[in-house]
Prior knowledge:
3 domains, elongated, Nucleotidyltransferase, domain 5
Amino acid sequence: MIDETAIAARFLLVSPLLDERARRLTAGAEALAIGRGGVAAVARATGLARTTVARGVADVQAGETVERGRIRRPGAGRPPIEVRDPTLRADLEALIEPTTRGDPESALRWTTRSVRNLAAELRRSGHTVSHQTVSEQLHELGYSLQANRKVLEGTSHPDRDAQFAHISTAVQLSLSLGQPVISVDTKKKELVGPFRNGGKELRPAGDPERVLMHDFVIDDPEHGRVSPYGVYDLAANEAWVSVGTDHDTGAFAVESIRRWWQTMGAPLYPEARRLLVTADAGGSNGARLRLWKAELQRLADETGLEIAVCHFPPGTSKWNKVEHRLFSAITMNWRGKPLVSHEAIVRLIAATTTRTGLKVRSGLDTGSYPKGVKVGDAEMEALYLQRDAFHGDWNYTLIPRQRLPLG
């Protein structure tokens, strides 16, 4: 008669002191000592699988040894899925690519299909895979479950992809020639004063920053709203931000570019002959805005630079580099900090850095930029505006009317 209670008691005493291999060998030795029926009895008493006990018996009989400090022989254990099924990840990516969604400001990607459906599709293709393995693979590829987000700004223009290619070619050409390339846009208008700002920052427990309960504009010269206009230098990873206190107009946009050139651009590019500007298609730097073009002509005349402009197609402003290389970093830097004054805003912007080495300078622009300034047909005809063969409404160059000596 096999006393399984005694076997269980002995195993319970030593089991916490043993690793996986030692438990298996102990169970195997116990089964060998019992003889016939020992494997089944030890399995019942210890809760180990019969196959584990049987393997322990075989290991004891074979006198198997392993290096000190190891549990398994070198190479033992289940190989990773990438080794067992080398084509799984490529097939999974090919399967989800048609349904992939994305935001250009984030490295995160996600898919609209469930992991169980994906696993079923892969099994039909000959892979032996579970939904859990698919989930792990998607996580390693940067996918996760996501809710809807409002990021679309309308239907895509039929020449959208072609314009992206045109911009890419123009940017790469300018950079290869050592000519400056900037990305420009206006950040979201901000309220100035003790208002709530999204995000959190470290403070003593129970002592949050006190801010106003409402978001009504404080209408006086020291507060109101500001319009941060960013000028991001693609090659240098540097930026200038003008914090405007008046209207966000084409004149304000070009003045911000002028300040970048005087403060940062000219010292960095003393031999520059041409400036390439990438901008979205609307707002104060809109493709149809006459004042924007007229002010760029004045800047070209002042600096002697040819100023080329490439607009992103409508609805694609978030693809402009200034959005996710500058504005997102500014937002992260001042999260949870009330923008209590003009000085605080300028200082917070100028303190913005990233791990990639972004450097930002900022200044307050208290100039007056009235809305509704009209640029007549005669003034437009006087511009030295050269339109590109492809989408001249989006791609054009302002030529200096009298090229001035540089420097």
